Amino acid sequence: MSLNAESTAFRSALEVIRAVEPRVADAIGAELADQRESLKLIASENYASPATLLTMGNWFSDKYAEGTVGRRFYAGCQNVDTVEALAAEHAKELFGAAHAYVQPHSGIDANLVAFWAILADRVESPALKKAQVRQVNDLTEADWFALRRELGNQRMLGMSLDAGGHLTHGFRPNISGKMFDQRSYGTDPATGLIDYDRVAEAAREFKPLILVAGYSAYPRKVNFRIMREIADSVGATFMVDMAHFAGLVAGKVFTGDFDPVPHAHIVTTTTHKSLRGPRGGMVLCGPELADQVDRGCPMVLGGPLPHVMAAKAVALAEARRPDFADYAQRIVDNAQALAEGLLRRGTTLVTGGTDNHLVLLDVSGYGLTGRQAEQALLDSGIVTNRNAVPQDRNGAWYTSGIRIGTPALTSRGLGTAEMDVTAELIHTVLSQTTPGANADGTPSKAKYVLDPAVADKISKQATDLLAGFPLYPTITLS
Ligand code: PLP
User: Which of 244, 270, 279, 283 to mutate to test the pocket of ligand 1 (most atoms within 8 A of CB)?
Assistant: First the structure.
């Protein structure tokens, strides 16, 4: 691949776009400039390869392709079949799964597909029994009515939000919280770690239909073998949402008990976080659930996005290369170096460290809320997001935590030495920021005071740090 090919491709694309709506072309260029300059520590973001990005910008976007490979509701889908089959094949090989469904448009959609597949497979509705139906498509209107009533009583046991679980694991603001009667398991208040005995106890009491493992903000490995045993002991379907750590599974950093694929009945993921693919979702499962999973569109999804499935095929092919395993290992090495750098400087970390791609800071030790810390860091050129910590006293809006992750900076090539510098920058900003006050003098959870000279200095140091690791080094837009 010559340096010119990637630059030429993006420059030409922008020229074509500029001729129609120059402001969009300008915004695309500005976004690259912004991303190049910011120290991106958002744990759920990454930088997809130029090949992955380019695969999304073409006429595959124009196709309707409801159905599955070889069984479409539209004519003329032979090329979509090619890319969908390729993406599924790469996913199966990469993760060692029997079946892969690559149509979900996002992680939330992948979870919806999985929930529905499990319900359709597992719901012991009297209506279903009476009708002795095996497929959702065979249900009559009366069956649907009975089934809808049944759904209100289905139970899901997932990780609590403040322990690091995700909204789609049965919480109210998401449809999963309305489809399921939810109960959550938290973490041990002393260690911040999952207490498997407590999970087993909750499962015994609650008897969930689905036991969900997976997280957005838990900085440790999960033992999926133990979780499967717990699910089996109460007859629950075991689902793992590996959206955050799919790249670590793909790169064989998480193996054995920590690889969800051999242990779960069904695994969902996003493709754009540590996996470094296009924005999208995916479901992996064994043959038992494959038929139901493949009904995702039109059951809960709109028509598949062929351009994104094509990009998934490209990104998954990249993840099958040996250098991806090296990348995945460096993500964890960097997260651990960042955690150690912060701990050495006195920062409190939830669970006292990390063994995955993310670190969760409890910023109350700096006298700040998560919101104040997030904004002060942003002023200083460091992009993070606030996040609740277990038993958070500041609630989900202001929070007491900052979540940081290393997939993106690792993609740029930063290593453990740069993580120590990053820890120093974060610590300097947080220790120089003080809480602000409202107009009436009462303490504010949002306002903060940070000397702009300090913010500028740190911003400059962050830019200097990044200068050695250019983002998309082969691409110049002008
Ligand atoms: N599942 C988990 C564990 C996540 O962290 C996220 C996103 O943050 C999702 C699902 C949803 O993914 P998406 O934003 O692609 O719908």
Answer: 270
